[in-house]
Amino acid sequence: MVFAAFVAGGAFAQVQLSAGGGFVFDGGRVGGLSLEAFGESFSEHINHFGFGGFAFLDATFAELSFGFMGGPARFGWEVSWPGGSESDTMSGSFLALDFSLLGKFPIVLGGGNMTFFPMLGIGYNVVLSSRDEDGNDNFERSDDSATELNTFRIQFGIGGDIDLSDTVFFRGSILGQYRFAPSLYRDIADGRSVVPGLSVDHHGGFGVSVRLAIGVRF
């Protein structure tokens, strides 16, 4: 997407650098695991909902950003068997770093003081801590590191700039995300997939990110 933007219309001459920062909300499914054996099934998942700040560097057709966030986490599980089932959830908290690289194609609107752009790119979330409400790491998974919940993401969405002056602008964006399963669940699935009669699968999940920022053009 970025390459096509540069090729079209002499875009090299149009590149302008800017930087800024602001508020970010990021929430959704981190990942999950499901097991089936002998008529019984078990599944579990973790959701994170983070609030924090981020900074970005923009080069017209690409945006690189770094964020720090924390907030509530929720762990849920369900087990079922012929004739019955049981489920439960636990609350907790998490802290994480977030990195993203997005391609964007600016479209100038109105009198030139507003810009709209579709966005597509990748992201990586580094979980620094994940605890339940009693302070247990990873919801009583004490043998697991919080970084085993790190997720690689495909991100897509829209954003826009509103000029506040010749050099200062307001930026807002909303991104949908698909988060690939973290290593915590991939490793469990890989290790148990060879057990006869046991079906194990890991899965990622969808999320959303909303960002509001003030930027400055150089």
Proportion of residues in extended strands: over 45%
CATH architecture assignment = Beta Barrel
Mean pLDDT over all positions: 88
Largest sheet: 8 strands, antiparallel, barrel
Q: Number of DSSP strands?
A: 10
Main β-sheet, spatial strand arrangement:
1-2-3-4-6-7-8-10
The number of helices is: 2
- How many whole angstroms does the radius of gyration measure? 21 Å
Could you give the order of the helices and strands? HEEEEEEEEHEE
The level-1 CATH class: Mainly Beta
Written overview of the protein:
- The protein is mainly β.
- The protein has one domain (2-10, 45-217): Beta Barrel (Porin).
- 7% of the residues lie in helices and 67% in strands.
- The protein is built from two helices and ten strands.
- The chain has helices at 2-7, 183-192; strands spanning 18-37, 40-58, 62-81, 84-104, 107-109, 114-132, 151-163, 168-179, 198-203, 205-217.
- A hairpin with a 2-residue loop joins β3 and β4 (84-104).
- The chain is elongated.
